[in-house]
Write a structure and sequence with these properties.
Elements lengths: L2 H25 L11 E2 L5 E3 L2 E2 H17 L6 H17 L14 E2 L5 E3 L5 H17 L2 H19 L16 E3 L1 H14 L3 H6 L1 H12 L2 E2 L4 E2 L2 E3 L7 H5 E2 L1 H18 L2 H19 L11 E2 L13 E2 H18 L2 H17 L11 E2 L5 E3 L11 H16 L7
Antiparallel strand pairs: 1-2, 3-4, 4-5, 6-9, 7-8, 10-11, 12-13, 13-14
Length: 404
């Protein structure tokens, strides 16, 4: 592929990142009560004022990362919004304790009163990301201390005692290793370790554990990535065991690749690319209509999730990062070809040329099914993270200074 083609990718991605940031800066800031509106319609108009805590955390993290690493986003407006979002989280993210245990809310009212709590660790995970990145841009130690405090609580829930999550144990429920959990913890390890030797040492064993837990999902003699396996790494029976999520596998692929590069592990590097990028793309790509299926059944049964055949924004974001990162590390032309294939589908289907940002939910044929830009699960995260990372990777391939 020519330098001109890479330049074309880079220029389009850079422009799209600028439009995406502009959309959220214009429409999502709650100047009265703090935090961010995350339920935004097609044109950016809020259609609900509930605030989803994991999306608040994601937006704080993304603003801080852009402010810290990209010159053109080092503005007072972005910094002030990130700090206001962080303070909203500190004041309102934590729901009242139940049975002695306290968790982050899943969503709160506009004023910050808890509405709902989920029995998982993901709101807390994005709270950690927000606090740590906010500490880096402000230099204020309280944020970093809070990130470590909550990180240690998450690790306790995952590895020692899950009772604090509030999930009752049922006699028929099989304990499982869901790939999303070690994936997310590996992401947090990567975040907390950056430039901090003491924390890198503290979480070194946890990082290794996360990698081994993710590798358990390579099943059927290396021919499939399964989303759920037993605690000892065996395939589960039924729909739960056959469940595949191509987007998660691709995201795990670039998480593993980052870890492998940082630790000089060539074997893990090969596994990340072959098993968590090339394999799930081969099985997950819709050969008839294009795009990545949301869910699949490894045995070819119809998945029970009603949205299984839809094309969602975030798996395509993860695929773009994975293949471009893979190519950057290996110069394997297969990976650049896959990046180009996903790029072509993504940029002809998801971006909204009229109002900015991306549609998130397409039907199998690639037509917009749901036209809102933000909701309980889509906020200022997957799109800008993808564009930001791809711009930086392309800058590296083109020999340019990092995004400015």
């Amino acid at each position: 592929m020519s330098k001109t083609e890479l330049e074309g990718f880079r220029n389009k991605i850079r422009a799209e990142l600028d439009r995406t940031v502009d959309f959220w800066v214009k429409h999502s800031h709650d100047q009265e009560y703090g935090g961010f509106f995350t339920c935004l319609g097609k044109d950016g108009t809020p259609y609900d004022d509930l605030k989803y805590v994991w999306l608040q955390g994601r937006q704080v993290w993304m603003y801080c990362r852009l402010y810290r690493t990209v010159d053109r986003f080092r503005t007072l407006e972005i910094l002030q919004a990130a700090k206001a979002g962080g303070e909203f989280l500190l004041s309102h993210a934590w729901a009242p304790p139940v049975a002695g245990s306290r968790k982050c809310a899943f969503c709160v009212t506009r004023l910050g009163e808890a509405v709902k709590v989920q029995r998982s660790v993901f709101s807390e995970c994005f709270y950690v990301l927000a606090m740590d990145e906010l500490a880096r841009v402000t230099g204020e130690s309280q944020y970093q201390s809070e990130a470590v405090r909550v990180m240690d609580q998450i690790v306790h829930w995952v590895r020692v005692d899950p009772s604090g999550l509030g999930r009752p144990e049922m006699p028929g429920a099989v304990p499982l290793n869901a790939m999303a959990v070690p994936m997310m913890l590996l992401c947090l390890v990567d975040q907390l370790e950056e430039g901090r030797g003491e924390l890198a040492e503290k979480y070194s064993e946890l990082g290794q554990w996360c990698v081994q837990q993710i590798l358990q999902h390579v099943q059927r003699d290396g021919t499939a990535i399964l989303e759920n396996v037993s605690k000892d790494g065996k395939e589960l029976s039924g729909c739960q065991g056959r469940h595949q999520n191509p987007g998660h596998a691709l995201e795990a692929g670039w998480f593993l690749l980052q870890y492998a590069v940082r630790h000089g592990d060539e074997g893990l590097k090969r596994t990340a690319i072959e098993k968590f990028m090339i394999l799930p793309f081969h099985t997950g790509w819709d050969q008839q209509q294009g795009g990545l299926f949301y869910f699949l059944d490894v045995d070819g049964h119809c998945p029970t999730q009603l949205e299984w055949s839809m094309k969602l924004w975030w798996p395509h974001c993860e695929a773009l990062i994975a293949f471009l990162m893979g190519y950057t590390e290996t110069s394997d032309p297969r990976l650049l070809e896959r990046f180009s294939q996903v790029y072509s589908y993504t940029f002809t289907h998801f971006p909204d040329s009229e109002h900015g940002e991306w549609f998130g939910y397409l039907n199998r044929e690639g037509k917009v099914e749901l036209d809102f830009k933000g909701g309980p699960f889509k906020g200022f995260f997957h799109v800008p993270r993808c564009l930001y990372m791809c711009e930086r990777l392309l800058d590296g391939l083109l020999g340019k200074p990092q995004a400015s």
